């Protein structure tokens, strides 16, 4: 690993995670999701918003959605345990998706266990959010659900450097094959929503992949052990929104 990459990694580590906020919030007790809107004025959308995420995926409308294309590469990443999730930030910005002619760059990806989105009321063991932004600042999140089964090779590469306490970071020793973290079947459900953590900003385009990936029970246990608590926001009301496929 070159000295330049290591120096860049430490520079990235010194930055606040994407969408970081000053007020303390958590998934338990007095600062849990049902109280987020009360913790800070900048969090009020968590309580008052009508386009909040996650949601239960049900009553789906067929609309023959345009496929998206991804241009993902093997990339070194900085894995951060920020106390809320395990988040991988990129040292380069080469991974993109294209949807309806708009290119968005992958900024980071992170995990929730159990899943935040549910399918007909049922949680998956793990959910990954790949967070992209366009040149205009619009956010598109690709969500991938994981079922327990065969071990996941790319997660194994990440988990080799698992930061096991909040505030710790680890530079991956090998490049992560980002394309392998998307299912082969690129069909998805789409809806308009929000960030699932404070400040719960709305106007986020969600693409929830229909085909799940797998991870082993041991890999799931390692994630849960590193984080020490569940980190899923409960599903939110639709308020007339449509989920389309």
TrEMBL record:
Gene3D superfamilies: Alpha carbonic anhydrase. It is an enzyme of class 4 (lyase). Residues 23-245 form the Alpha-carbonic anhydrase domain. Residues 1-22 form the signal peptide. InterPro entries: Alpha_CA_prokaryot-like, CA_dom, CA_dom_sf, Carbonic_anhydrase_a-class. Keywords: Lyase, Metal-binding, Signal, Zinc. One of its GO terms (molecular function) is carbonate dehydratase activity. It catalyses: hydrogencarbonate + H(+) = CO2 + H2O. Its EC number is 4.2.1.1. Belongs to the alpha-carbonic anhydrase family. PANTHER family: CARBONIC ANHYDRASE (PTHR18952). This is carbonic anhydrase. It comes from Kosakonia cowanii JCM 10956 = DSM 18146.
């Amino acid at each position: 690993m070159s000295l330049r990459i290591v120096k860049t990694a430490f520079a990235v580590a010194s930055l606040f995670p994407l969408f970081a906020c000053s007020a303390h919030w958590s998934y338990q007790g007095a600062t849990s999701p049902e109280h987020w809107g009360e913790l800070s004025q900048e969090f009020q959308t968590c309580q008052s918003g009508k386009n909040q995420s996650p949601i239960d995926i049900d009553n789906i409308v067929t609309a023959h959605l345009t496929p998206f294309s991804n241009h993902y590469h093997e990339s070194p990443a900085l894995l951060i345990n920020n106390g809320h999730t395990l988040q991988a930030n990129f040292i380069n910005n080469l991974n993109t998706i294209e949807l309806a002619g708009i290119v968005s760059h992958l900024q980071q990806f992170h995990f929730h266990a159990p899943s935040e989105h549910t399918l007909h009321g049922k949680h998956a063991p793990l959910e990954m959010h790949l967070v992209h932004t366009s040149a205009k600042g619009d956010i598109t999140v690709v969500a991938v659900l994981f079922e327990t089964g065969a071990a996941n090779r790319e997660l194994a590469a990440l988990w080799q450097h698992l930061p096991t306490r909040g505030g710790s970071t680890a530079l991956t020793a090998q490049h992560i094959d980002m394309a392998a973290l998307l299912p082969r079947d690129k069909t998805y459900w789409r809806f308009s929503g929000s960030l699932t953590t404070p400040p719960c900003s709305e106007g986020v385009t969600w693409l929830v992949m229909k085909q799940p990936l797998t991870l082993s029970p041991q890999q799931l246990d390692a994630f849960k052990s590193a984080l020490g608590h569940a980190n899923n926001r409960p599903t939110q009301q639709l308020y007339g929104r449509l989920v389309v496929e």
